[in-house]
Amino acid sequence: MSIINSIKKDFTTRTLVLISVAIVINIAVGQLIFTLKLPIYLDSIGTVLVGALAGPWAGALTGALADIIWGLTINPTVFWFFYVAAVIGAMAGIAAKMGVFERSSPRWLSALIGGIFFYGLTLFILSLTSFSREGLIPNAIDLTRQNALVFIIVLFIGLAMGYFFLQKAGYAGFAGLITGVVAAIISAPTAAIVYGGVTGAGTDLLVAAFRASGAGILASTMAQGAVSDPFDKMVSFLIVWLIIQALPARFKAR
């Protein structure tokens, strides 16, 4: 009975309106990224926002419906990932109940998240611009060693940005990283079995590179997810954190 009451509490009229808007945001942003073939998704911003504001059940429904509607109308490849989107929404809701979007995190944690973000972004860019003729992705350790000065500068910029700009967003960024790891693990079997690792997204480039390195389909999709998903979900959680900070307190209370 308590579970039913919890579900009912999550679905007010305002929540249903918010879910509709969030689904449009997911599909619009996600399809744009898909069309541009970028090795990231950003199709969970609306899902995370609903989860953060209205709870895990609403977040899960938003993620699932967004992928189902998107898959049935525009991009069939996303349809079978609806369960992953549901988990992302539920985890965002659980994270919100733990206060990650409202509680002030230690500034050292925000600085750490900023450093990880900028390091990951730089590693992403260098990896995609450093393919060998055989289509192999350079080892992350080798890339870091070869571009040590660049990474040192970027790391300091990230630490400073996190400390002075994000300040209180450390918990949200960390929750995004954890959500991304879970999403990578549970989405890999579908990507490998249903699509053979090729979904038409920009992340296919990473899968192909891992395959060229000798890894199997499942291992390659898992590796691609491990590279893309934590970074992607951290970005989505941080964007939602910024949105929530900008919302009037009265709106958030409602």
What report would you give on this structure?
The chain has 254 residues and is an all-alpha fold. The chain has a single domain (2-105, 168-253), classed as Arp2/3 complex 21 kDa subunit ARPC3 (Orthogonal Bundle), CATH 1.10.1760. Helices cover 76% and strands 0% of the residues. The chain is built from twelve helices and no strands. Helix 2 crosses helix 4, helix 3 (45-54) packs across helix 11 (217-246) and helix 6 packs across helix 11. The protein is globular and about 55 Å long. The protein starts with a helix and ends with a helix. The relative contact order is 0.14. The model has no long low-confidence stretch (mean pLDDT 85).
The overall pLDDT, averaged over residues, is: 85
Largest sheet data: none
Number of domains: 1
Helix/strand order, N-terminal first: HHHHHHHHHHHH
Assess the beta-strand content as a share of residues.
under 5%
Task: Quote the CATH topology.
Answer: Arp2/3 complex 21 kDa subunit ARPC3
Per CATH, the class reads: Mainly Alpha
> How many angstroms does the end-to-end distance come to?
24 Å
Helix content: over 70%
Poorly predicted runs are none
Give me the number of helical elements.
Answer: 12
Structure classification = mainly alpha
Number of strands: 0
Shape: globular
Keywords for this structure?
254 residues, mainly alpha, Arp2/3 complex 21 kDa subunit ARPC3, globular
